[in-house]
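Supplementary Methods S3. Complex input for the zinc ion-bound model.
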Amino acid sequence: MAINYWEEEIETLPRAGLESIQLRRLKKLVKRVYETVAPYRKKMDAAGVKPADIQSLADLAKLPFMVKDDLRDNYPFGLFTVPMDEVVRVHASSGTTGKPTVVGYTQRDIELWAGIMARALCCAGAGKGDIVHNAYGYGLFTGGLGAHYGIERLGATVIPVSGGNTRRQITIMKDFAASVLLSTPSYALNIAETMDVAGVDPESLSLKVGIFGAEPWSENMREEVERKLNLKAVDIYGLSEVMGPGVAMECLHTDKGMHIFEDHFLPEIIDPDSGESLPPGELGELVFTTLTKEAFPIIRYRTRDISRLIYDQCACGRTLVRMEKVTGRTDDMLIIRGVNVFPSQVEHVLMSVEGVEPHYQIVVDRVGNLDTMSVQVEVSESLFSDEIRKLEKLSKTIQHEIKDLLGVTCKVLLVEPKTIQRSEGKARRVIDNRKI
Ligand SMILES: [Zn+2]
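Predicted complex, serialized as structure tokens:
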């Protein structure tokens, strides 16, 4: 298979060359935000660091972190580095509490983003001639429009279908002969299931690759989606605070992580408790500094995503570091009777059990002073209509496997197919009823 690069020179640059570009851009960025954005200047002054102190990439660790609260505190446009008449677009992510976090882009930011997203699509083997069904939500969420501009830049055909109305999506995918599908992994499963009900054979579609992101998903989930939609599933990473989709992208030559577009986004892994930088290869919280964005650059943004960096040479020839599939988020983490539990770990267990469907919900409660966790999971039609004894055995198996992997005892409730609400965007995996 010929390798598809968008900007071959930069994507295959030896590390020394890459690092010198990163350092040059970092110095410029730190100076610019210090001079133009009061909240950055205040934070840097409080930490006793000046732009001139940044002389190597390791000096990055001297700079203070940014967290989601910094965005909320400066709502809506307080962290922008350019006057509003240079901002051509804003996006916002809905927070679960309070005000949304708002990000902005200059014309040049939008152009850079389109190019970076085109690079990402190339990693998945997409190119001119592809029909790309873009089921990411359009609107304030960065997913839809972010991918859209990249698809156009690539020269492929974009179908801007957005989320929802799944039956119509299937008709469009089939009739327009879409070759690439972009959506959240949970919505991809929803599409697969709706196809099954409507009697549409995945073989009758023209899909070859699915680019799924915006929520953590397990390797077992990948196999499930690949099988049900008859395509190759690859992972994409992004978040609005850093840019949107296209910060990192899995290539077709590895299943071990996504290439980070490091000439634009400088990654670090830190210990989420102490904030200390961790050595290469360690698992920890992912932190990003944007190197090229104009309107809304961000320095040392704590993503809350748990990952590790992989520096081994990739078979595709790209020298860009890879980040391992996100296994959870520090703020998604549930603490059940003192044990850290990530929904993705539960998913991993469920997907490895025969007869279990990829639809589940974790319900956490507090009874007296004791936390309880129960897992509701759908089982296949045939299994559900089987003897009670078999269902009991299955629920015991799942319970045992979860206890084995996570060290937590939970109740397992097997439910009929189609009981759990379907996602048209990001799936709601956890219901936490604890009042703490
Ligand atoms: Zn690669």
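Residues 251, 253-254, 259, 314, 316, 318 surround zinc ion (CB under 6 Å). The mean pLDDT is 93.
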